[in-house]
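Subject: CLIP-associating protein 1 structure
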Amino acid sequence: MGDAKDQVREQAQNLALKLMDQTAPPMYIWDRLAAGFKHKNYRSREGVCLCLLATLNNYGAESLVLSKLVPHLCNLFGDSNSQVRDAAILAIVEIYRHVGEKVRADLNKRGIPSASCYLPLLQHTIVYGCSVSLLQYLHQQRIVSVMACSS
């Protein structure tokens, strides 16, 4: 998942999803993939977040023990690479879309201060049918970060 070529990273993600489909339950695979959240290569960390998005979309939240994965995402909120931070936020957004307010409580319990600022925006985004790409755009434009700092 950390290769320089997009096509190789995509195929690595497809392989992980295929393993979940044909060989083992998603959480079994994620118990092994979770080490990628701490990998030294930023593309690997980003790729693991994106693979989590794909897993949620393909298998749903009930196939995973999200309480084991959310702490890794929380750590990536402070990653030195902006692509990793964005991917971690997108993964939390997707988790929120699947489980709702439970993720806010988990983030607050873990002391993530910006959670109370950007999750209401996320709620609004989901309720009014806007795409997750809107939140990604807002984060890239630093609108979400500004909101988090202003509270």
